[in-house]
Amino acid sequence: MYSIRKKLSIIILACSILAVLLTAIFVNITINNKFSEYMVNNQNKRNDRIVQYFQEVYKRDKKWTAASGSEMKHEAYMSNYCITLLDSNKKLVWMMDPNDIKEKEHFKSLDGKSGVFTTNSFPIKYNGHVVGYVQIGQYSSVLLSADDVNFKLSINEGIIASIFLSLLIVIIISLYISKQFSVPIREVSNVSVKLSNGDYNSKTNVDTDILEIEKLKSSINTLGEKLNHQDLLRKRLVSDISHEIRTPLNILQNNLEAMIDGIFPVNTEQLIGLNDEVIRFGKLLNNLNALKEFEADTVSINREEVRLDELLSSVCDDFSIALKEKNIDLAYNIRPNKDYSIIVDPDKLKQVFINLLSNAVKFSDCGGKVWINLTRDKENIIVSIRDTGIGISKKDLPFIFERLYRGDKSRNKIEGSGIGLTIVKDILTLHSASIEAQSEVGKGSIFTIRFRNNV
Ligand code: ADP
């Protein structure tokens, strides 16, 4: 296994070495070819110059002697080639000894080997007639002087130096680029390992300008927050359930013990009190059971066409006594001349409104007010239930639909199990409807339900 940094560096480096080597080979071949071309051109020019020189000599002397053009010998010897002068009948006038130039070290052929002695013959013309021949011989097809060889070497050295310089730059860049990837990914992976070990508070703040890594980072952070939240809920759930069960059981046990010990009289009033606790206990178990059914997806829905305005007014009627007891004023407003028919499970939907209305009553002080509004627009039928109750704090608001979640204020003072709104949400989700809550502590709450028109 490689780290992402190592792997990226190796890939970048391998690609760069390949690119640099290919470029170097290409540049080297091109320069060598051009250089050979240049040397061959030079040699051809030299040959032309020699022929021209002998033509001038003949023009001046009109005949060949052993001294004709012998000044060229020195230059030929210095430049490592041999000249032989022949007359028009190809009879030797004078010649240089090829052995004199054989062992001269500072001359090399293009391919670096010393070769076979070869000669090329060129006619010398005067007034359109061939008057003689000059033969130029040398030990390789193209001759390179020490300067030429040095020039070629320095070009090759330059190419090699540029290869090493490019590789050095590539190594530095690849380390920098791979760091840009590896550091945030390592950070995110460390956080995910911590999350998997149960440390749900860990999160990463690593800076990155890579879109995918930024998304990964924020989703890992969100995952951590959600796990943390779920963990809190789980812990709270266990403590809430044990609290809810322990309270009525303790009351029952204490009272029964007091009756057995003769401290409390066994009379109807005492028994009614104990029965209330048993009923409360039963209610809690019923709620938990209902919740279990929704969450296990075993609940069945019996849809039929229902007039929402009628369903709501029947729920309001059911609450008349509870409202009167707390002297709460209920205003039921329906935007008229609209059709509020909808295909739903009437019993389940009634449960939704009962839960919301009972919360509105439960969390309102005596003399409060509750509004139920029913309206319809192009896309939705909208029901809102608003109260002037104690309100929900900003801290609690995002969690009120969670299982067994109870706001801090209501926890201690007001009876409840934290299941009502979870059931509301589950039923509405089954009907493809949405619910949202807005609230301000001390001012009241408003719950808005939207049913899609075509449901
Ligand atoms: P319960 O009412 O049994 O506590 P719910 O699931 O119905 O459980 O409600 C969850 C929490 O939401 C409540 O404990 C309370 O803090 C808050 N809540 C719900 N409805 C209202 C309301 N109308 N006014 C104030 N708080 C509310």
TrEMBL record:
Bilayer disposition of the protein: Multi-pass membrane protein
Subcellular location field: Cell membrane
Transmembrane segments: 12-31, 159-177
InterPro entries: HAMP_dom, HATPase_C_sf, HATPase_dom, His_kinase_dom, HisK_dim/P_dom, HisK_dim/P_sf, HssS/ArlS-like, Sig_transdc_His_kin-like_C
Keywords: ATP-binding, Cell membrane, Kinase, Membrane, Nucleotide-binding, Phosphoprotein, Transferase, Transmembrane, Transmembrane helix, Two-component regulatory system
Documented EC number(s): 2.7.13.3
GO cellular component: plasma membrane
Domain of life from the UniProt record: Bacteria
SMART domains linked to this entry: HATPase_c (SM00387), HisKA (SM00388)
Record GO terms (molecular function): ATP binding; phosphorelay sensor kinase activity
Pfam families noted in UniProt: HATPase_c (PF02518), HisKA (PF00512)
Residue ranges of every copy of the HAMP domain listed in the record: 179-232
Predominant localisation class: membrane
Residues of the Histidine kinase domain: 240-455
Annotated coiled-coil segments of the chain: none
The keyword Kinase appears for this protein: yes
Catalytic activities: ATP + protein L-histidine = ADP + protein N-phospho-L-histidine
PANTHER family: SENSOR HISTIDINE KINASE CPXA
Protein name (Swiss-Prot/TrEMBL): histidine kinase
Biological source species: Clostridium ljungdahlii
Chain's gene name: yycG_1
